[in-house]
């Protein structure tokens, strides 16, 4: 009898299946839960839905797994990592620095970006020359951030530091409005913030550059973590990671304080007279009105009487031939110029191959709007011949400047072009567009809050 019992138990144990791994559970349930933070550098609700660098990367990983993405941001940043620790989220994708303290509790995937923690101040208020000079001042930091750890390594006592459960944008706004003398933010956040608060400046580096990565719960099951490592390493090796990063931060490496201040003033003084026309033209062309407005500002600073030495004129700076082509009689008439520019941009964009996805499709169309479609095609051919991707702006922009060098333009169909101009043109418009999106989103929030009262 005892032998029979042992045999039965052996048979039963032999039929037991091991519990599914976390990766298998995610796939079975069809949902990847990712916790982030509400910030322009990570995850936010844009004009066309969820957006941000972390959102784009997480969306691609969810697609790779064949599941839906459930991405959310808790009210406070300090709640991000605990959500992963409790198993409420599978991944924390929130612009997290890899620190010694965090590594003790979490696995981190491959770094995808590097930032530098910096002290930010308001231009004109006196730049601190050392970290010692800041001690005892009104210095703000985000609660639960790695910057708190950095401050603790610099100062023996940080009781004088003010901690806030806000996003980086709100913290920077406190410095811009003189509510705080200084704040700690990372280099990317400051670069983005300067577009909206051009008086902000980075004074000092608080610490050495830090890598950013996704965080995973430490435990016996590392299946999802290992799959994410493979995914991110593949994305990096293929060049796709660099392309995603460029889409979000490719226009932050140049900051023009004077130009940004003038642009902000013109948004108040000039844009209201033409906004309705930009909105009408955008509906006809099927584009965001703020993109058309950004093009108009790059072309003329929204001056209907603008004239270039080559004879192009009006808000959208149309040539005589282009105006005739899009049915415009008076290029100095603001409404005609904006409608004509919208039609022309729409036609240029239609020439871009259908396989090219956004936002590269728009960036390439803008380059063609500036330099001509033929020259853009020449640059794309040079890009492909060199083994890079002719459908990605991050690659094509490296080859456009070659069109001004005889060694290269002599090989092309359309010859010489001032190839650096469309690169600058596109990057400027991207900056203007981002600022307009930010300002109109702020206006919408105020309107919603007022209507709810």
Structure described in brief:
The protein has 453 residues and is α/β, with parallel strands linked by helices. The chain has 21 helices and 13 strands.
What's the topology here?
Blueprint: H1 2-15, H2 22-29, E1 31-35, E2 44-46, E3 49-51, H3 53-65, E4 68-72, H4 80-85, E5 91-97, H5 100-103, E6 106-108, E7 113-115, E8 117-122, H6 131-134, E9 139-142, H7 146-154, E10 162-164, H8 168-176, E11 182-186, H9 187-196, E12 200-205, E13 210-217, H10 223-238, H11 240-249, H12 257-269, H13 275-285, H14 289-300, H15 320-325, H16 334-351, H17 360-371, H18 373-385, H19 393-399, H20 406-409, H21 420-452
Parallel strand pairs: 1-4, 1-5, 9-10, 9-11
Antiparallel strand pairs: 2-3, 5-13, 6-13, 7-13, 8-11, 8-12
Descriptive terms for the model:
453 residues; 21 helices; six-stranded mixed β-sheet; globular; alpha/beta; five-stranded mixed β-sheet
Describe the protein's architecture and organization.
The protein is of the alpha/beta class and 453 residues long. It has 21 helices and 13 strands. It has helices at 2-15, 22-29, 53-65, 80-85, 100-103, 131-134, 146-154, 168-176, 187-196, 223-238, 240-249, 257-269, 275-285, 289-300, 320-325, 334-351, 360-371, 373-385, 393-399, 406-409, 420-452; strands at residues 31-35, 44-46, 49-51, 68-72, 91-97, 106-108, 113-115, 117-122, 139-142, 162-164, 182-186, 200-205, 210-217. The strands form three sheets. Strands 1, 4, 5, 6, 7 and 13 form a six-stranded mixed β-sheet that branches. Strand 9, helix 7 (146-154) and strand 10 (162-164) form a beta-alpha-beta unit. It is globular and about 70 Å long.
